[in-house]
UniProtKB/TrEMBL annotation:
<keyword id="KW-0804">Transcription</keyword>
<dbReference type="Pfam" id="PF00440">
    <property type="entry name" value="TetR_N"/>
</dbReference>
<keyword id="KW-0805">Transcription regulation</keyword>
<dbReference type="InterPro" id="IPR036271">
    <property type="entry name" value="Tet_transcr_reg_TetR-rel_C_sf"/>
</dbReference>
<dbReference type="InterPro" id="IPR009057">
    <property type="entry name" value="Homeodomain-like_sf"/>
</dbReference>
<feature type="DNA-binding region" description="H-T-H motif">
    <location>
        <begin position="32"/>
        <end position="51"/>
    </location>
</feature>
<keyword id="KW-0238">DNA-binding</keyword>
<protein>
    <submittedName>
        <fullName>TetR/AcrR family transcriptional regulator</fullName>
    </submittedName>
</protein>
<dbReference type="InterPro" id="IPR001647">
    <property type="entry name" value="HTH_TetR"/>
</dbReference>
<feature type="domain" description="HTH tetR-type">
    <location>
        <begin position="9"/>
        <end position="69"/>
    </location>
</feature>
Length: 204
């Protein structure tokens, strides 16, 4: 039976979403095309009707996974709220639905340029989503804000990777989350306090 264009698009999106979760759980090399298609509810032969290669699917599923992380900021979530969720035990334990950067960043370094480009584009979108909104800032201030966000993401992703590298019941797994979460939250407050007391607080 012929599949409609809309159904074909829905099927493709389902495969991408399934792949995104499986890759985060098992790694890019830990999931074969046959297993992936079976998990999505399709036959192995249908893969090449939808994708040119596994690399194409990896790149598309990577973009899908990072977009889910970016979506966490869509309701006005500020960087502090993002960090509290990102370095939570819930996120740490939910590898298949968690951050693609933490789950697959090491794998991406050994992937073709198309996959690494998907990471770069996705990370840029997350940096933009965490940037201050509704403010007119100078070029220098914008550059400093971008640097702080890059530092925040690098610190948070690294902490999550280190926590996941430990056994689930290891006290060190929680210690990585707690220590790094507190440090990042402290750094978010520091730039405001460095501005010094306001003019009003200096009077009287």
């Amino acid at each position: 039976m012929k599949v409609s264009k809309a159904q074909a698009q829905a099927n493709r999106a389902h495969v991408v979403e399934t792949a995104s979760q499986l890759f985060r759980e098992r790694g890019y090399d830990g999931v074969g095309v046959a297993d992936l298609m079976a998990a999505a509810g399709f036959t192995h032969g249908g893969f090449y009707k939808q994708f040119g290669s596994k690399t194409d699917l990896i790149a598309e599923s990577t973009a899908c996974g990072i977009a889910q992380t970016v979506a966490l900021t869509g309701e006005g979530l500020d960087p502090a709220e993002f960090v509290r969720y990102y370095l939570s035990r819930e996120h740490r334990d939910g590898r298949s639905t968690g951050c693609t950067m933490a789950a697959l960043g090491g794998d991406a370094a050994r992937q073709p340029d198309a996959v690494r480009a998907a990471f770069s584009t996705g990370i840029e979108s997350l940096i933009a989503a965490l940037a201050p909104r509704g403010e007119t800032v100078s070029e220098a201030d914008a550059s400093q804000a971008r640097a702080r966000i890059i530092d925040l993401l690098s610190h948070a992703v690294g902490a999550l990777v280190m926590s996941r590298a430990c056994p689930d019941d290891s006290p060190l797994a929680d210690e990585f989350l707690t220590v790094c979460r507190d440090a990042i939250l402290g750094s978010l407050v520091a730039p405001q306090s460095e501005a010094g007391p306001s003019a009003g607080s200096q009077r009287g």
